[in-house]
Design goal:
Helices cover about 80% and strands about 0% of the residues. The chain is mostly helical.
């Protein structure tokens, strides 16, 4: 599929801002776990709640790629897609295994605040695999998506992720993305949202994330690790 005057093609800039959020939160997670004092279940609950949220957002994001992006690229992208999409799928398997390790360890650590080093090590594996995957995705997949997916199809990918994240967590999730997101890209994303969301999200999202970050990271401005 190639671009025509009749049909706009995918604007993939939203993927870059999502990736910045994932890089930041997953790189910071291992040390968050390590900084919890043994037996401090109040603090472990705060960090575990944060970990649950970012893990759920990541899982929804990758499910959308698996069900919406990869099939279209394999169908339309020729030899280049045929070579890289299986690599992406294999990386997803590795990420999902690491994600399962983290989510399996979280409940016990949440309730006891003990055994944190095992959880932190699992979170490091997850972060490393995720960062490697996102770099390759940005280099190889996003140019293909721009060429072979329409804007409407790309929107389906975003809608799928939003539909699987609990509605109560969507404003916070958007605030996480906005924290390092390019304002022009954020504006473009919101241009497709209902009027109420377009008006409220630029105010509500950053406020929710600032409050959340203060509880989790101890500051409303956690380190910006978007590169």
């Amino acid at each position: 599929m190639t671009q025509t005057t009749a049909e706009a093609m995918a604007d993939v800039r939203d993927m870059y801002v999502a990736h910045r959020m994932f890089r930041r939160e997953f790189r910071l997670l291992p040390q968050l776990v390590r900084d919890v004092d043994s037996g401090d279940t109040h603090r472990s609950a705060v960090v575990a709640n944060h970990a649950d949220k970012v893990c759920a957002i990541l899982d929804a994001h990758h499910e959308g790629e698996d069900t919406i992006v990869w099939p279209r690229l394999l169908e339309r992208g020729g030899e280049r897609s045929a070579a890289i999409v299986p690599v992406m799928e294999q990386q997803h398997h590795g990420i999902h295994a690491a994600l399962a390790s983290v989510t399996t360890l979280l409940p016990g650590w949440r309730s006891t605040a003990r055994g944190g080093e095992g959880l932190a090590a699992a979170a490091e594996v997850l972060a490393d695999r995720l960062v490697e995957h996102m770099a390759l995705e940005e280099k190889e997949i996003l140019p293909l998506a721009e060429q072979h997916m329409t804007a409407a199809e790309w929107a389906l990918f975003g809608e799928h992720a939003m539909s699987t994240v609990p509605k109560k967590d969507l404003p916070l999730a958007f605030g996480m993305v906005m924290y390092e997101g390019d304002p022009q890209v954020i504006k473009a994303i919101l241009s497709h949202a209902p009027v109420a969301a377009r008006l409220m999200m630029p105010i509500l999202g950053p406020r929710l994330y600032a409050s959340h970050a203060k509880r989790v990271h101890g500051t409303t401005t956690p380190p910006r690790l978007g590169i």
